[in-house]
Amino acid sequence: MKPRLSLKQQITFAYMLLAVTVASVFSLVSYISVAIIEDQVIDVRLAKMADGLIAAQQQGHIPDAPPDVRFLVNASIPLELRQLPAGLHELTLDNQHVHALLRGQGGSRYAVVQEVDELAHTELIILLSLASGFAVSVLLAVALGMLSVRRLIAPVAALADAVQRNAGATELPSLKAQDEIGVLARAFAKRTDELQQFLLREQMFTGDVSHELRTPLTVMLGAAEVLAAQLADQPAQCATAERIRRVAGETAQRVSALLLLARAPETLDAPRTVLNGIIEAEMERCRPLLYGKTVECRLELSEQVAAHVRPELAGIIIGNLLRNACQHTEQGSITVQLGAGRLVVEDSGTGIPQRVRERLFERFVHEGNWPAHEGTGLGLSIVKRVADHIGWDVRLEVPPGGGTRFVLCFPVLPAIQTP
Predict the structure, then answer these.
(1) Is residue 344 scored above 90 in pLDDT?
(2) What is the mean pLDDT of residues 98-123?
(3) Packed helices 235-261 and 180-230: angle between N→C axes, nearest 10 degrees
(4) By Cβ atoms counted within 10 A, which residue in 192, 235, 336, 395 is the most buried?
(5) Rounded CA gap, 392 and 317, in Å?
């Protein structure tokens, strides 16, 4: 695609185009006018001189012609002129550019010849003047365009810089201006204020919900630990208590991850985290979703892979991708491949309809037609949001054999050497 000109370039180009158009029309009209005037002046002058010179010749007087005009009669007329009919002619005679008026009167043939070299020189000077004026007009247009651009674009540039710096709504420039820049600045200010208020409400809501959930989760976690200790001699009940404790602990981790999402990405610390253990834990957590299904879930890796990320956020992404695969695969296999800078979660399910693929990572968009696993339509949108938050990339691919493949890409870190 051809790159579009910037606003500065467009304004300067418009000035230059206007100058070229006006100067071209003016130069053309001037040149045509000069040519017409030249022809008219020479023709009228030759006709008047011819009348006077022929009259003097017929009265027996010696014709008195100007220095640049020759009056020729009969045999003195050069052969080049004799062959021409009566009237006005423009030609080269004796290596000189001349205008000649031929007449026949009283049985004699007359020729009045005027040299026009000086006129041609004058015409050249006029043409050079027009060309110089044309060039100067274009240069002046470019200079005027650049000056106008600086004056017109300066408020827009200042406004863009303020928006880029995420300045407050009241800090934007040109808010009191009554021109179009003022209208744009006030529109930006209104929109910026609305966005800031929305983000503030979202952060406060996320923080409040996470804070309020921490206390009951802590109580549940403590109660499950006490219950597991009391039921140590009853394996069946002890397993149930341990499951409650594990789920409460995992939920507490998710709550902590929500608090991290409420913070700006640049304020998050990103320790070096080994992803192998997180993947194995999330796979173990998703195994209950495969009960009663003929689905094989396997992990393929050859080394430990690390990334700069908070473990809670990595767990949200990986867990949602694995749950998505487990819920929508009734038979076949789920394969998780981990390599340097790349995690692939592929299943042999029925795949994703074409109508859903383009909007798959939007909120409340369901992946397919599985009534038993419709859910809320938020899983993949959360994956996308967390990935964008930490600077990772997630995309959907369609395997040749059918099914679904999600590819998660992240910055590559040197592999950890295992003993």
Answers:
(1) yes
(2) 78
(3) 160
(4) 336
(5) 10
The HSE-up count of residue 329 (CA atoms within 13 Å, CB side) is 29
According to DSSP, the residues that pair with 195 across neighbouring strands are: none
Contact 318, 279 (CB under 8 A): yes
Ramachandran assignment for 251, one of left (phi > 0), alpha (psi -120 to 50 degrees), beta (any other):
alpha
| Fold equal for 7-140 and 268-409 | no
Full-model pTM = 0.50
Measured in whole angstroms, the distance separating CA 176 from the mean position of its chain's CA atoms is 30
- Helix axis angle for 379-390 and 235-261, nearest 10°, is 50
Q: What pLDDT shows up at residue 376?
A: 43
Chain-centroid distance of CA 96 in Å reads 62
**Residue 172 burial (CB count, 10 A):** 19
- Backbone φ/ψ region at 375: left (φ over 0), alpha (ψ -120 to 50), beta: left
Residue 359: both structure tokens together: 């909007």
Q: Hey, what amino acid is at 386? A: V
Look at residue 409 in the predicted model and tell me its pLDDT.
93
Six token digits for residue 323? 């749950």
The answer to whether the CB of 298 falls within 8 A of the CB of 338 is no
Please give the CATH topology (third level) of the domain spanning 7-140: Beta-Lactamase (3.30.450)
What are the structural domain ranges in the chain? 7-140, 180-261, 268-409
Instruction: Looking at mean pLDDT, say which of 31-35, 161-165, 382-386 comes out highest.
Output: 382-386
Structurally, at CATH architecture level, domain 268-409 sits in 2-Layer Sandwich (3.30)
Report the C-alpha gap between 206 and 51 in whole angstroms: 106
Helix/strand/coil (H, E, C) string of the chain?
Answer: CCCCCCHHHHHHHHHHHHHHHHHHHHHHHHHHHHHHHHHHHHHHHHHHHHHHHHHHHHCCCCCCCCCCEEEEEHHHCCHHHHCCCCEEEEEEECCEEEEEEEEEECCEEEEEEEECHHHHHHHHHHHHHHHHHHHHHHHHHHHHHHHHHHHHHHHHHHHHHHHHCCCCHHHCCCCCCCCHHHHHHHHHHHHHHHHHHHHHHHHHHHHHHHHHHHHHHHHHHHHHHHHHHHCCCCHHHHHHHHHHHHHHHHHHHHHHHHHHHCCCHHHCCCCEEEHHHHHHHHHHHHHHHHCCCEEEEEEEECCECEEECCHHHHHHHHHHHHHHHHHCCCEEEEEEEEECCEEEEEECCCCCCHHHHCCCCCCCCCCCCCHHHCCCCCHHHHHHHHHHHHCCEEEEECCCCCCEEEEEECCCCCCECCC
- Give the position of tokens 């700069």: 308
